[in-house]
Amino acid sequence: MQIKTPKFLLSSGDAILKEAVQRLAQPGRRDFLRRSLTLGGLSMLTGCSLSSNDSVDAALTRVSRFNDDVQAWLFDPNRLAPTYPESMITRPFPFNAYYTQDQVRHVDADSFRLEVSGRVADKHSWTLPELRAMPQVDQITRHICVEGWSAIGRWGGVPFASFLRRVGADLTAKYVGFMCFDDYYTSIDMPTALHPQTQLTLSYDGQILPPKYGFPMKLRMPTKLGYKNPKYIKAIFVTNTYPGGYWEDQGYNWFGGS
Amino acid sequence: MNTNPQIIHPGWLRAMHWINAVAVVTLVMSGWRIYDATGFMGFEIPAVLTLGGWLGGAIQWHFAAMWVLGINGLLYLALNIGTGRLARKFFPLSPRALAADIRAALAGKLAHADPRHYNMVQRLAYLFVMLDSVLLVLSGLVLWKSVQFPLLRELLGGYEVARRVHFLAMAALVAFAVVHLTMVALVPRTLVYMVRGR
């Protein structure tokens, strides 16, 4: 198909083009055009990963790091998240992962060993009976998802601070990282790891943790958003090197506190 | 502060107004994208009206713009109260004068003779949007850090209630903005005052 040139362009097209070239030849105008186009671009950032502009991305990431610091400063290691009566438990507790429920991992209980590495004195791998032999606690807390919804569940297991002390972890280290059977990974700050409600969770609602909620174990933290609570944990490491996380590396805030 | 009697809005107020406008547009558009992650009120906001592209991006915009609104809002309130502008411009409120102004507005006869003077409808609308913004920031704080602000969380009825409060306060702000922009369209010289100050 041939594109017809509109009539008015046939007569005045050359003149318009000439004027446009002249205008663009002035560097001030060109800069202004470029800046105004960028401003326009700001309103059209939908549909890209974060934005189409690297410097905007970098600035947003810097603010996100600043928000990590503010949240670490706001975090009170002695302030407890609210607990709820049994009647308020959300049933069924929602399934949530970066995949659908039919892709849930099934881990073999007998061959399972929890690896512990990094800045810890005792690096032996843990069996499930060993973990179940440690003193357990139950708590009914609210899980808050980054998407906005929330649900109340009952979780039982070993207070994570007890576990870290038991393995002789360097409690002055910055991070505790987690590797999972579903290829998920995340990391948390040491003050949150030592929070009294942070729990190495082995049971849900009085039963062995079912596969859909992360068998053989998950880390449950009512002081953090859902994506900071890893399921299907296979390895724990203590480190001073920033380990990142599955969602965090894509732009979710690292501290992810609630 | 304001020695030139010609000046209707002082410079600081105009600067804050426009910073606030940018912050609010950013917060509302990114907030709509965050809302779409669950759509808990039973509808979705069309993607073209949202900012950030995906949930992680929207949250980054939202949590950057919240500092702009928070700091700008605190400075605005401090200067308004400190300079006596709040008391001078928005008070007294009189129900009788309000009723008269509403009747005049509905009849299309509400006078705009003196732009330095806010009529009762304007006073009430601007006071409302100030209080609504405070509610937005406080309910936002609960959503952001519900464990760290227990008193605020309980005052707002817990996490899930705070979430609805935040949404409804946003809807009220957007409704205000629609009326506000309609009034500006009807009396365009107010836009000039807000840009040039006179």
From TrEMBL, chain A:
Oxidoreductase molybdopterin-binding domain location: 104-247
Q: InterPro entries in the record, alphabetically? A: OxRdtase_Mopterin-bd_dom, OxRdtase_Mopterin-bd_sf, TAT_signal
**In terms of domain of life, where is this protein from?**
Bacteria
User: Which parts of the chain are coiled coil?
Assistant: none
The record's SUPFAM superfamilies line, in alphabetical order, gives: Oxidoreductase molybdopterin-binding domain (SSF56524)
Which residues does UniProt assign to the signal peptide?
none
Query: Could you tell me which PANTHER family the record lists for this protein?
Result: BLL0505 PROTEIN, PROTEIN-METHIONINE-SULFOXIDE REDUCTASE
What's the protein called, per UniProt? Answer: Molybdopterin-binding protein
Automatic annotation (TrEMBL), chain B:
* Spans through the membrane: 12-35, 59-79, 124-144, 164-188
Membrane topology note: Multi-pass membrane protein
Q: What is this protein called?
A: Cytochrome B
Q: Where is the Cytochrome b561 bacterial/Ni-hydrogenase domain?
A: 9-197
- Which domain of life, per UniProt? Bacteria
Q: Which UniProt keywords apply?
A: Cell membrane, Electron transport, Heme, Iron, Membrane, Metal-binding, Transmembrane, Transmembrane helix, Transport
Entry GO CC:
plasma membrane
Family membership: Belongs to the HupC/HyaC/HydC family.
Query: A Pfam family for this UniProt protein?
Result: Ni_hydr_CYTB
For this chain, one GO molecular function annotation is: heme binding
What is this organism's lineage? Bacteria, Pseudomonadati, Pseudomonadota, Betaproteobacteria, Burkholderiales
**Main localization (coarse):** membrane
Record's subcellular location? Cell membrane
Single Gene Ontology BP term? Answer: respiratory electron transport chain
